[in-house]
Amino acid sequence: MPAPDPSIELKRLADEAEAIASGLCDREFDAGATGDLGRLAGALARISATMKTQAVQLRESNEALARAHTRFGEALRATHDLDRMLEIALETGMETIGARGGMLMLRKGSGTLMTGVTRNLESPGFKLEVGQGISGHVASTGLPILLPGSADQPERHENEPEVSTQLSVPLISHDRVLAVLNFYDKSDGLFTEADLRTILSLTDQAGVAIENVLLHQEAERMAIMDGKTGIWNHRWFQIQFAREIDRAQRFGRPFSLIILDIDDFRLFNNTYGHQIGDFVLIELARRVKSAIRDVDMFARYGGEEFELLLSETDEAGGLNAAEKLRQIIAATPFESEMTPEPLNVQVSAGVASYPSGGTDFRSIFQAADLALLQAKAQGKNQVVAHQPNQ
To answer: What's the confidence (pLDDT) of residue 1?
Structure first.
């Protein structure tokens, strides 16, 4: 049998190589070639088989990623709970890239990260300053980190897990880092750039969903907040008052209502203008908020009137609290760069308590309002408590 023509065999192999280069991996090669042509045919056969395997793996990976995106999107849409959204982001990311452990660090304020959610880690909760450790570096720069990686990688904090491979990415909304997602110890080796791209695609999706929730929360908050002073408005105060009455009736506990009114408030507006009048309202709200308990409900009733609900506080306690606030407001003049001179601000207050002042919103509020009018009539800058025989 005559030997194959080398030029014909070479042309055939060249055609096969071009077919492989164009993405056709299902190629069959004649094993009859010998010598260098046989070696070339064998190499092309191996390349074809490798590309076929990689194509299958890539297709399976893309399908898995698409399924993860679908599940992730459905899970995010199913909740408006921000904390649960962050948990879903961590858990989905771990499953998608095969991480053995994970930790979510929540940003609190402008300078601190706190452990929020952990999965499969023994390390206790801890906090970091932004810029400190790997998570702090990600929060500070807004950029992801893949480890092992570049030589200038940040130093690991002593409380952060010691692992062989790590992927840390920021979760961003409105150009602000909300949290840092950390993934540890890949189950089949080291995390790769492909894993990083996968996680970034998930966090982009999460960022949009979280941004929508934050906008929704902001809209709800604005509906119950006073836009000028930043404290609760009367509408929300009424809702909380009804809840307080229900608790008081069920458990037999007292509470007190204080109505504060700024004395001669019109003089500030007429003398200095409405901008100074607004400053007085804002500063008064700030002073009161700094002096009351977290459980107390403080709101703006309207104009220059404010209302304060004191849980589990009887008549004597309500009177003492009102007098303390009156002194705090009167003791130090209100001044800022806007005020042409220090402003002496004073308030009058009326106090009523449950059940002596009434057993529903209308009667208790009316009792406190009558006490306030009496304080005004007696010369202002004083506190009057409602008397049951009034």
So the answer is: 47
| The token pair that represents 176 in the structure block | 């602000």
CATH architecture of 232-385: 2-Layer Sandwich (3.30)
For residue 390, the 8-state DSSP code is: -
C-alpha span between 315 and 187 (Å, rounded): 65
* CB-based contacts of 277, cutoff 8 Å, min separation 6: 265, 268, 269
Question: What b/e sequence results for 84-120 when a residue is b if at least 16 CB atoms lie within 10 Å of its CB, and e otherwise?
Answer: ebbbbbbbbbbebbebebbbbbbbeeeebbebbbbbe
60-64, 232-236, 253-257: which range is least confident on average? 60-64
Closest of 280, 289, 276, 311 to residue 232, by C-alpha: 289
Question: For residue 13, what are its two tokens?
Answer: 């192999």
Confidence of residue 129 (pLDDT cuts 50, 70, 90): very high
For 6-64, the fitting CATH number among 1.10.3470, 2.60.40, 1.10.8, 1.10.10 is: 1.10.8
Q: Does domain 79-219 have CATH number 3.30.450.40?
A: yes
Q: Which residue from 353, 354, 385 is spatially nearest to 372, judged by alpha carbons?
A: 385
Question: Is pLDDT of 147 > 60?
Answer: yes
Each residue of 159-212: pLDDT tens digit?
A: 999 999 999 999 887 778 888 999 999 998 999 988 898 888 888 777 777 777
Q: What is the pTM (predicted TM-score) of this model? A: 0.56
3-class state of residue 180 by DSSP: strand
The three-class DSSP label of residue 106 is strand
Q: 185-210: b or e for each residue (b if 16 or more CB lie within 10 Å)?
A: bbeeeebeeebbebbeebbebbbebb
- Give pLDDT tens digits for 244-284: 999 899 888 999 999 999 999 999 989 999 999 999 999 99
- Give first-to-last CA distance, the chain, whole Å: 127
Q: How far apart (Å, rounded) are the C-alpha atoms in residues 91 and 287?
A: 44
Contact of 203 with 89, CB cutoff 8 Å: yes
In the β-sheet with 166-173, what is the strand arrangement from edge to edge? 127-129, 112-119, 99-108, 176-186, 166-173, 145-147
In whole angstroms, give the CA distance from residue 348 to residue 327: 11
The beta strand positions in 148-251, using DSSP E, are 166-173, 176-186, 232-233
Q: Catalytic site residues?
A: 304
